[in-house]
Recover the amino acids of this structure.
């Protein structure tokens, strides 16, 4: 975790997603990894969770930086998921 110039906690993490979707009547295995930026109190709380904790995030897509074309998910909201 690091802090923004304004002093807000900022946590960078990688979210891994795996699911099976139906596309044009056929099964499709969707797998991806996405960088998530968690800001504020949520970052400080999530930083205390053990590595590998399953979470759901609600946020928006944005550029990694003003001059970047890479996408990240920015969020202040997450929810812990009970183990499967």
């Amino acid at each position: 975790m690091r802090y923004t110039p304004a002093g807000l906690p900022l946590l960078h993490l990688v979210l891994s997603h795996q699911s099976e979707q139906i596309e044009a009547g056929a099964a499709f295995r969707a797998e991806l990894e996405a960088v998530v930026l968690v800001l504020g109190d949520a970052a400080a709380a999530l930083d205390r969770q053990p590595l590998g904790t399953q979470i759901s995030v609600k946020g928006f897509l944005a550029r990694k930086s003003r001059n970047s074309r890479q996408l990240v998910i920015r969020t202040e909201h997450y929810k812990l998921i009970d183990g499967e």
Notes: The beta strands are 2-3, 9-23, 26-39, 55-63, 71-80. The mean pLDDT is 92. The chain has one domain: 2-80. Residues 2-80 form a domain with the OB fold (Dihydrolipoamide Acetyltransferase, E2P) fold (CATH 2.40.50.140).
